[in-house]
Amino acid sequence: AAWVFIYGFIVQSRRARKMEISNLQLQNSLKEARLNSLSSQLNPHFIFNALNNIRFVIHENPRHADRMITALSDILRHSLTADRQDKITLAEEMDVIERYISIVKLQHEDRLAVVQDIPDLARRCLIPPMSLHLLVENAIKHGFENLRSGGTLCITATTTADRLTLQVINPVNPERPLADKANRNTGTGLDNITHRLRLLYGEQAQLETRIQDNTFIARLALPRETSP
Amino acid sequence: MKAMIIEDSRLAREGLMRMLKNFGHITITGAADHPQAARQLMAEQRPDLLFLDIHMPGESGFELLESLDYTPKIIFTTAYSEYAVKSFDYNTVDYLLKPISEERLQSAIAKLSQSEETRSEFTQTANTLVEPPLSLSSRLFIKDGDRCHLVDVGKIRYIESCKNYVRLFFEDNKAFVKKSLNQVETRLPVQDFFRANRQYLVNIHAIADIQPTVGDGYDLTMTDGQTIEVSRRNAASLKDRLSL
C-alpha cells in the first residue's frame, strides 16, 4: 500500500508541475501579445526625434525643455497603460494628445497648426484609450511628414442622443497622397483600432477613412457612453 | 572640408551645427531644411560632405542623392535604423542615429579623415603602379577556367560586375575575369567606355538604341539586344559625352 501511495504521489506531483508549466506558458504568451500591441502603438521614431529635439531645446529654453520632458513622460505612460483600461474619457485622451502635439511641434514648428472643436458634452464621453491618439499620429506621420508647406490638423467631436463621432482631418500631398510604404503603415495602425473596436463594441462602432480634395478624413463613430 | 547640413527640424539642424563647431577642419557652408533648397545651395557651394537626414517632408534624403550630378561624402543623421543597409548604396562615411552623442559624432569625423588618408595613399601607389590605359585596338589575353580568349578591346560590348568578378561580353562569347569593375574601368579608354550604373560598363560604340526613362535616366539597347539602364546620376555625363 505504501508503494501505491508513493506512486500516486509521484504521478500527482508530475501532473502538478505540468499544469504549472503550461500556466506559465500561457501567461508568457499573454504578456508577449501585450508587448507586441504596445510596440506597434507608439512609433519609436517619434520618441527618438522627440529626444533629439528636446536635447537641443535645453540650450535654447531650459524651461520649455523641462515641460517637454514631462509631456513626453506623460505620453509614454499613457501608451504603456492604455491596455489596462477598456475605456477612458475623451477629456483624458485629449490631454495626452495635446502633449503629443506640443512635442511634434518641436519638429515641425510653424508648419503644423491645430484646430480642435470638442464640446464639453463630448469630453465626458468614453472612448478606447489611444484610439483618437492613433488617428492623430497617423495624420501627422502620413499627412504632415509628406508635406513641405505644412497645414492645419482638425480634430472635431460631435454627439447625438446615442452616438459620439470623432473626426481627424489633415491635408495630404497631392503628388504622393498614397506613397506605398506610408499606406502600408497606416494600414497597421488603423487595423489595430478596428480590431479593438470590434472587441469592445461589436458592430456598434465604425472607423471610416477617405481622401477628398487633398485632405485625409478619418471618422470614428461610437455608441455614446459616459463615465458612471 | 566644406560641409552642408540637410535636416528638416530647425532644432536638430542648429544643434548639429553647434556640435560641429568643435571640429576645426569642417566648415559648415550651408544648411537646408529640405532637399529642394539643398539642391540649389549645393549647386553654388559644391560641398564635399553632407550631413543628411533621410525622412524629410515630400522628398527623402535618398531621393536627393539620386538627383545629384556629383557624389559628395555622406554622413546620414536619422532616427531610423532600418535604412542602414540601403545607405551602403551611396558614398556613405557613417550612419548616425539620433540623438547623436558627441563621441559618436567624433568617431564619424575620424573615419572621414581616415578615408581621406587612405585615398591619397591609394592614388599615390595607384599612380606609380598603374599600367598604361588600353586603346580600342589593344588585345587582351583572358583565361577563364579552361578556355582562353584573345579579345580585341573594341569588340567588348559591355562588362558586367558580379561580386568579385567582372563578366566581359564580346562577339559571341563571355568570359569572367577576377577583377573589380572599378579596376577594369581605369584600364579602358575613357572616351569609349561609359559607366552606365554600378553594375555595367558599356562600350559606347556597341549602343544600338537609347531611350529616356521616366526617372530622368536612359535605357540603352546594346547591339546584342541586351538592355542596360543608365542611372539618373550617370545620365548627365552620358549626355555630355554624346553631345557636340
- Structure classification of chain B: alpha/beta
Q: Note the main sheet of chain A.
A: 5 strands, mixed
What Rg of chain B do the Cα atoms give?
21 Å
Q: Could you tell me the strand content of chain A as a percent range?
A: 15-25%
Q: Give the uncertain stretches of chain A in residue-range form.
A: 179-185
User: Which geometry of chain B do the CA atoms define?
Assistant: elongated
Provide a concise account of the structure shown:
The complex is a heterodimer of chains A (228) and B (244). Helix content of chain A is 59%, strand content 19%. Chain A has helices at residues 2-41, 44-60, 62-81, 90-108, 120-123, 131-143, 180-201, and strands at 88-89, 112-117, 126-127, 151-159, 163-171, 206-212, 215-223.
Keywords, separated by commas or semicolons:
heterodimer, A: 228 residues, alpha+beta, two-stranded antiparallel sheet, 59% helix, B: 244 residues, alpha/beta, five-stranded parallel beta sheet, elongated
Overview of the molecule:
The complex is a heterodimer of chains A (228) and B (244). Chain A has 228 residues and is of the alpha+beta class. Chain A has seven helices and seven strands; from the N terminus they run H-H-H-E-H-E-H-E-H-E-E-H-E-E. Chain A has helices at 2-41, 44-60, 62-81, 90-108, 120-123, 131-143, 180-201, and strands spanning 88-89, 112-117, 126-127, 151-159, 163-171, 206-212, 215-223. In chain A, the strands form two sheets. Chain A has a five-stranded mixed beta sheet. In chain A, strands 1-3 form a two-stranded antiparallel sheet. In chain A, strand 4 (151-159) and strand 5 form a beta hairpin. In chain A, helix 4 runs parallel beside helix 6 (131-143). Chain A starts with a helix and ends in a 5-residue tail after the last strand. In chain A, 29% of the residues are buried. In chain B, strands 2-1-3-4-5 form a five-stranded parallel beta sheet, sandwiched between helices. In chain B, a hairpin with a 2-residue loop joins strand 9 (165-170) and strand 10. The longest helix of chain B is centred in the middle third of the chain and has 28 residues, at 102-129. Chain A binds chain B through residues 44-45, 48-49, 51-53, 55-57, 59-60, 106-109, 111, 144-148, 150, 173, 175-176, and chain B through 8-12, 14-15, 18, 34, 36, 55, 57-59, 79-80, 97-100.
